[in-house]
Design a protein that fits this description.
The protein is of the alpha/beta class. The protein contains nine helices and 16 strands. The chain has a six-stranded mixed β-sheet, sandwiched between helices.
Length: about 400
Amino acid sequence: MNVLFRRLVFFALMLGVLFPAFFAFHTAKAAPLAEIKNVRVHADKDKVRIVVDADGEVDYRSMTLTAPGRVVVDLLGARLSPSVTKSQEIKSRFATKVRLGQFDKSTVRVVVETEIYKNRSNYDVFSLEGGAVPYRVVMDFGNLSGGAVSSGSASSGGSNIDFGHGTRSTDEEDSSADAADTSSSDAENAVLPPRSKSEGSALPGVSGKRIVIDPGHGGSDTGAIGPTGVTEKSIALRISRRLKVLLEEQGAEVILTRTADTEVSPKKANATDVEELQARCDIANQNNADIFLSIHLDAFSGPEAHGTTGYYYESGSADSKRLADAVKRNVLRRIGTLDRGTKPCTFYVCRHTNMPATLLETAFLSNPREEQMMNSDDGVEKAAQGIAAGIAEYFD
């Protein structure tokens, strides 16, 4: 009887130890939610732009509803800050109101009341990252193609916001927003006339391929900043420079969108986000690159987030996903980070390039251990080797 009693006590004690530990383990693994910090609205005669600011990575999905007409965007893995204005009227023929709410415990729902939802060419949803706001989801409604929009009466003005790298006056903001709709700058076109495909495009292997590497951010846009002040723009450039050497050793023709700490757009710090991103796409498109790879480092509001993520345009080719998979997989083998998956995205540079494209979030700069690793020569070397190996796997 004493033996049985001791065994029961031991079993109870083990349950008391193991179950809390098990629960704590799974609690620690739960992904942190990004906070939706702000929603900004700008309306002019051509369109309405709505920008939702988040302090960390969010995925999203969109759908349309009728009676009344609405475009609904669900921000996944997000929570709504209590300080965000939940409803805003919009004085425009393109959209009349935007509303935000916590749809469930990890989803923020954005509802835009609009009657132009029936024609997909009259609205657009895409994401931007970097700068003063880590992540943004942008919704445009109106005259996006330069043609007529099938909608009601004349428009009136709206509230002015800053979409770029600092505060601008109303006139400057309006002219910048208009300029962002152009496909590329005249200066960039003059420097990079269209080129034919590389001679090795149809052959297996890296040799002869024309590869455009895009070091994320640069100049006035630092990107993420680590706990000790390490900047995303500097690490992305270090990886890209080393990657260029490795690929050229294999016979590739490699073009960097930037080779120094500067913006890519000829407008430099005065460029809007879209102008800066389009300038990077122009380099790949006008050079008829075989692939495009944008190198970044991730960040979150807390230090616990970590790992590596590959992205590809959700409506792009299967080759983009295959490229993203190969690059991410080979980086993981060398730097030993958590696999956060290969995810569809609508990042501008993946969406507006004409060839297979991927954006790599190499590691989390906001994580102290990963910041230390990526700020070391060994970390940069291993990341570059992993990307090079992934590119080689893609072309084999």
